[in-house]
# Entry
Amino acid sequence: MNRLTTLGLTALLWPGTVTLAGEWSGYLSGELRAFPAEPNDPRQHGNNLSFSAQPEYYIEWDDGRQSITVVPFARWDQGDSERTHADIRELNWLKASDNWELRIGIGKVYWGVTESQHLVDIINQTDFVENLDGEDKLGQPMLQLALIRDWGTLDLFVLPGFRERTFPGIDGRPRFQPRIDTGLTQYESSREQRNIDYAARWSHYIGDWDFGLSYFHGTSRDPTFLPTLNADGEIVIAPLYEIINQFSLDLQATLGDWLWKLEAIHRSGQGASNYAAATGGFEYTFVGIFDSSYDLGLIGEILWDERGRDAPTLFDNDTMIGARFTLNDADSSELLLGFIIDNDDQSQLLYIEGSRRIGQRWKLSIEARAFANTPQDSLLYGMRDDDYLQLEIARYF
Amino acid sequence: MQKSPRPAFKKILPITLFGLSLLPLTANAETAEEKGLAIAIKADQLDSGWGNQTADLKMVLRNRHGQESTREIRSRTLEVEGDGDKSLSIFDNPRDVKGTAFLSFTHATKPDDQWLYLPALKRVKRISSNNKSGPFMGSEFAYEDITSQEVEKYTYKYLRDEDLDGRPTFVIERYPAYKHSGYTRLVTWLDKEMYQPLKVEFYDRKKSLLKTLTASDYKQYQGKFWRPSKMSMINHQTKKSTDLFWTNYSFNTGLTDRDFDRNSLKRAR
# Structure
């Protein structure tokens, strides 16, 4: 590197003399899960205690146009050795210019609009041991270039390094039966986890319509499940990660009290044939019910997968209905009730998620999940005894 | 949440301005409605041209037992000619919502465009702006109290001149002209020198007195624009109250449209 380049780089990264002051935030959390029923597999744990921590360090300079974010995460779990894990959620440098942004490092990206599941969201792998809802994600190494123009934002991604989905261990709960043995993970690509994936996304809004069109080529974040025997002669499931091409659309129309939502994907490369899947529906909000400041939102969504019963997903032809109470109080109290029913076999998943702040720095959350009417050929069957009630208290700093 | 504290009156379409500038303020034939509107337009004109501003906001919420909780927000606002302002609010406290950011494009008559950024999920969520009457962050300020106050958002009626704490004021009634307001009317004591409100009484949908806002400790910036340092809202029906403390007002900060888009929302800190 010649001297001029060095100077140029130095000027780019450290323009002028600036005093840098980083900032810490994050949380510590304790979680208790109560399982009223005996486990389906005697190796699975009963009531369970768990602690997690997610500190965050952020530093910016260049008038906030450059920054570094570091977010490590760690969990200790009493009963499930696979749930005891650590991850780097974020470790990246961001440079923002007038009409572009560049992010290099481990990052997290969210795409999508629907409530019941997140079909379109593909950049980050799901940290499935954290929660069944698929909203916890593992950090993904990435180079992301965003071009910001009048016609919207074009995001281009190079994703070196694949992250395997985490699954509950032998003793974990709730989990599938037979269990998923991540020791038997298979890849379509001979480069396995070193395969480089690519993605592009155009997102924009016109009036009340927000939308994104995305393309992904690389290792599927959703594995195909292969029943097999492991070395101990136990029937287990081996996850197979195939190379896929996926086109997707996510769309939301915000029309007064109505939100109309659609997520749709078309995927090739996973299994024998191409397939499409979609989630769509609405959320209608009653603002200020009963002459109070409470809001009540009613949610309805249809979950559909072209592969039908063969789909390695819980949701091939399902209906979700839900209610969201938002108290709009000083403690930010809220409660979400969700109910997903399979339109074919009537298997049911019920969930409750609620939270409120306590004082300035604490937050109390409750969560309950219940599985009902689970037929033997349903993925939910393995979880039929895994209903649980969870209490979580988190301290933010 | 969106906005810097300009609870007064703002913005107007050029055509309206042109039409009304032909009306002399003191015309004999002027009705109470015309006089009210003329005062609102004057207040808007005096508070135009500030371009962009940033400020820090501390909110102190008090329940009927006097228990307090606080919020800290940084606010960035861009003046938009011929339309409502754009604003970005970034939450620093309470800590569980740290990094949450709110982007709002206000409009004079059609509904505002609003996006919320949820840092835990990294999700930008378009949200409905129909909750105008709902509490902002659990406070006694409704969204409609702190958004950009375009002239066209109300109709007006001049009531009387009155001294308030020794300062001459116009007392004006405003009637929301937009949908989903929680109010039937707002009685405003507008300082005759600053053309900024010193006090506002809010009447709910049942026409009962709901809240009283007091704005104080005004300071002048850029030799022109008056901003309050403190705003106190008392809810007479619930006995709860909220104080807003504004600090670090800064103008001409170099903010552009690009600082008020969905990309900037995601990286707002």
